[in-house]
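Sample 3 of the quickstart, ligand heme C:
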Amino acid sequence: MDDNGTKKNSLKTILVMRLNIIIISLLSFILISCNHTKEMTVSKTEPIAINETKIEQTESYLLFKNNCYACHSVTSKWHDEIIAPPMAAIKRRYQMSTETRNDFIEAIVKWAKDPKEENALMYGAVQQFKVMPKQAFYEEDLLKIATYIYDNDIEQPDWFGAHFKEQHGGKGMGKRRMRGM
Ligand code: HEC
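Result:
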């Protein structure tokens, strides 16, 4: 009896230990899968961060378009319609006389806040169009606009090309079609 009892008991402990091992491995499996899904969510949030900068870019682009394009339009042809030099020309001129990105941004903001003939860098333009009229821009907007002008190819916003490719299929066909544009 006693002997049988201890045998049964040791069998029981072996079984319990096995069960424990199974439970532990199941738990760790679940934990690992949880971690795995966490990793997946992290990588899923990356495009959202990119979208945020896109939204910022879009905001600056719209500010630029709404405040400056009325006169500095990129679509007007170099003849009758044009009432101010194209922003691409202004960018080139201002890059020539400033050294850093900050200098450039500062110079554009300073000009747009208070355009005065004696501060103009584009004498030819002042002759042709008369000095840019003073307007009530927000300094905060001007900062965003000037940064946008510096950071982007302003004839065609560079994020727009990438955005377009992404929206209209980055694989195969889409890319080949883009090249023709
Ligand atoms: C109502 C028309 C008009 C609007 C709107 C306008 N500009 Fe101008 N801008 C001009 C004209 C005209 C000139 C060319 C004469 C001159 O240089 O002052 C000019 C010239 C400039 C120059 C060159 C100045 C120089 O050194 O000679 C800068 C920089 C400039 N604009 C920035 C801006 C920015 C930035 C905006 C938008 C926030 C803007 N402009 C909106 C009319 C405008």
